[in-house]
Amino acid sequence: MSDTRISDSIIHQLPPEISNKIAAGEVIQRPASVVKELLDNAIDAGGDQVKILIQNAGRTLIQVSDNGCGMSKEDLPLCFERHATSKINTVDDLFKIRTLGFRGEAMASIASVSQVTVKTKRAGDENGWEFEVWGGEEREIKPTAIDNGTTIAVRNLFFNVPARRQFLKTDVTELRHILRTIQYTALANTDVAFFVEADGDIIYDLPVQDLKDRVTQIFGSSYKASLIEFGEETSYVKIHGFASDPKLAKKSRGEQFLFVNGRPFQHRYLTHVILSLYDAWTRNNEYPFYALFFDIDPSKVDVNVHPSKMEVKFEDERSVIQLARSVVNRALNKHFQVPNIQQDQDAFLSDDPSKGFDSGFSFNKPQSSGQSGGGFQIPSRINNRSSNIGGRGDEFGEKLYGGGSPQRPNYSEAENFEPAEDEQKKVTQEKGFWQLHNTYILTQTRTGLTVIDQHLAHKRIIFEKAINATEEALPSTQQLLFAQTLELSASDYTLLKELHSIIQRMGFSVQLLSGNTAMINGVPADIEIGNEEEVLISMLHQYQELGQKVKLEAREKLAIAFAAKAAIPRGKKLTEQEMEGLVDQLFACEQPYLDPLKKPTISYIPLDEIQSRFR
Q1: DSSP 3-state assignment of 436?
Q2: pLDDT at residue 247, as a whole number
Q3: Would you state the pLDDT for residue 376?
Q4: Separation between Cα atoms, residue 564 and residue 530, nearest integer Å
Q5: What is the spatial distance between Cα 566 and Cα 463, in angstroms, rounded to a whole number?
């Protein structure tokens, strides 16, 4: 009877090679996951120098070296066994974790999907040892010459799991994830020196330093004078760290860091609370830098709630969040002395452009003879027909002001735009243009009123000009009298490097230098001289934000990012000639009725609808 049960059994134990790959799917999601696990081990080893080498965004090589305690010959094969660890011995140890790694799954998971070579030596040993594990298959241990510490090289990640490899993102995206992982570790361990090299380029060379200097060296010298320090200590928790001035806020996330007992973690609600404190000083979708450190009794926080170890659970979560909010809010209020926000809002809607939002772009701004370049000029159809996009300004001008009908929109793409018949859309020149709240351009048609959003309309114009420029052999560029050197963060520099050829074709002249710096020698004609650094950085951040929302070609996303920065802002007062020139250029576009993200640029209000309001 028992034999029958055994033969009929459908449940069986998975072989180690399969179970390890399943575990790897939970722990090793991308190259950055490998970097995190290796850095955790390097820090736990107690060294004060860590070197990281990356090739092909981690696909080809991830190598982490430390000068820590090293391992014995007997430890080497054990470190690749699942649930083998030197960091916990009893159940009670789980509730007082002080180390970064402790599960004993990382090395087994990594080795099951890559080719791993470990070289290690303890301080008292005569020689070191080398051990290889390829795809979970162990090879012989042999002596080797190596300095004290451990070097782990992970090659050809996911070589035996091609389905996982093909789902990796572009090199720049994967490298950005790696750099963020390194940033977490470097911020939490300022008593450790880090050297980071990617494809032969030195990304970071960080000595042992205090937290403020570490932040400045990682994210740029502009942060040094703009960091707001905060700190508070209670009997339950100690909180300290830095936040940035809102002027350094970026359009994309990535510079918000939370730590508990030196361990990075993520907490959606706490992040929301901290960001909400900046609402009075930032616009929508802007994200300031902050690094918030919690020191708390390990028994009061559970770090063993997720395989990636990025989530934690506080025993008294409400008190921790309330204290964090109070500490950061007090530091911000002290820094800004609580300004009059209403006054700033009134300035935004002021008729005086000098009191409103300064985008860095000017329109027909008078210049001295000593200046070169100048602001973006909106040409009038009266005095500058040749500047219309595509050379079709005369044709569309006639349709707009005279005997033809402008191009009809694609109604399926503009849900709320319901234009009247061709005859109803003809614009007369009798009454000219008006501006409503320095945001909308109004002009009457023969049978109604046309309302144009000046910001969205200009985005369409700039977008098409940028796209057309990428197709030209010699894009239009205004050379700077003095080249500008731009210091970037490592992730921004990596992105600039990937997009460099497209940016050049759009009219920028940018030279890539060493040390995460670039030199701007020229810019497109749409940019006001003196604002080129802000424009380029803003483009990179807008591009990152778009990458998470829309699926477009790189040049299209970059053109949208450029247009968003270069377009006339809402709240900018325009002359009638400027409004006329803007409308001319809009109807010279391929798709004048939609901005690059498919938002309607024009709304038509029939005269019948207006009349009905007075009955």
Answers
A1: strand
A2: 87
A3: 41
A4: 18
A5: 9
Neighbours of 590 (CB within 10 A): 13
The answer to whether residues 460 and 591 touch, using CB atoms and an 8 Å cutoff, is yes
The position carrying tokens 């002027």 is 247
Cα separation values, 283 from 34, 250, 437, 597, 614, Å: 36, 10, 19, 20, 38
Task: Say what the pLDDT of residue 52 is.
Answer: 97
Among candidates 188, 190, 186, which has minimal Cα distance to 178? Answer: 186
CA distances from 249 to 281, 340, 401, 568 (A): 10, 20, 44, 21
Non-local (6+) Cβ contacts of 172 within 8 A are 57, 494, 495, 497, 498
pLDDT of 21: 61
What confidence tens digit (pLDDT) does each residue in 426-438 have?
443 444 889 999 9
Instruction: Quote the DSSP letter at residue 224.
Output: G
Number of neighbours of residue 349 by Cβ within 10 angstroms? 14
Angstrom distances, CA of residue 514 to CA of 161, 413, 467, 532? 36, 45, 29, 20
Amino acid letter for position 576: E
* Surface-to-core class of residue 54, CB atoms within 10 Å of its CB (0-12 exposed, 13-18 middle, 19+ buried): buried
State the amino acid at position 131 in one-letter form: F
Residues of the chain with pLDDT below 70 are: 1-7, 9, 12-14, 16-26, 82-104, 304-309, 338-431, 473-474, 528, 548-550
Checking 189-195 for CB contacts under 8 A at 24+ apart, the result is: 189/43, 189/262, 190/214, 191/48, 192/43, 192/47, 192/48, 192/49, 192/50, 193/48, 193/49, 193/50, 194/50, 194/51, 194/52, 195/49, 195/50, 195/51, 195/52
Q: Which of 571, 587, 543 is nearest to 254 (CA)?
A: 543
Exposure letters 558-574 (e unless 16+ CB within 10 A, then b): bbbbbbbbbbbbbbbeb
Q: Which residue in the block uniquely carries the two structure tokens 């609600």?
A: 269
Phi, psi of 440 (to 5 degrees): -115, 140
∠ Cα 113 117 123 (to 5°): 140
Is residue 405 within 8 Å of residue 425, measured between CB atoms?
Answer: yes
| Number of residues that this document lists for the chain | 615
Give the distance, in angstroms, between the CA of residue 552 and the centroid of all CA atoms in the same chain.
17
Q: How far is CA 473 from CA 178, 461, 469, in A?
A: 36, 20, 8
CA-to-CA distance for 152 and 100, rounded, in angstroms? Answer: 17
The single residue listed with the structure tokens 């979708």 is: 285
d(CA 162, CA 164): 5
pLDDT value for 373? 36
DSSP bridge partners of 503: none
pLDDT for 323 equals 94
Q: What is the pLDDT of residue 99?
A: 56
445, two tokens? 């048609």
- What per-residue confidence (pLDDT) applies to 489? 85
| pLDDT for position 7 | 56
pTM beyond cutoff 0.70? no
